[in-house]
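::Encoded backbone::
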Amino acid sequence: MLNKEQSSLRLPRTADGAPPVVVQVWGEAALFSRPELKVERVTYPVMTPTAARGVLEAIFWKPQMRYRVMAIEVLKPIRQFTVRRNETHQVVSMAGALRGERVDTVAARDQRNAVCLRDVAYRIHAHVEVDKKADKNAAAYRAQFRRRVTRGACFQQPFLGTKEFSAEFSDPDQTPPISRSEDLGVMLHTIHFGPPITMEWFTARLDSGVLYVPERGIQVPLVGDS
């Protein structure tokens, strides 16, 4: 098993010299939806940074901290399958959700095909960043995160893109990433809930089984929300 302070990747360290925290996650299926395909759900071939951040926050999160995902290693061959799922054709905007708006899921139900991933495993590398209101330094939060990973503790069950595809997690092992490289297109980097709500995007590429995530993406306002 890898030492928790070590990584086979050469990733930037924090200002105080700390390496990223690392966790290994896996599951029977995953769905990381491409935003440009509106009707049918088609997955990216790999986990996205926002999905990785969701896994990390399900394990450990405090309002004074955030995770900056550095890299995602793909540990199993990329395999897809198709499934028919019940979804709604009405969607509440982020601003509407904050106002308490709801959707009648029975009246607005549709059946749609989804292209998903089968038998997936990833290794997530991320830095812990704290704001000025934090009562502990980043090292304390990193230690708490690592302890929870080792114990298998989480605030809620992590999932892989959609809640029906739950994820297991553990300390990292020495499984090598797959030997596959390809361009993945434009991918969501971060959502800033504002106000105003904005999103950051970046051009993603899988490089020998590793998705490297830049520190910042290109910020785009969310039209229609404020």
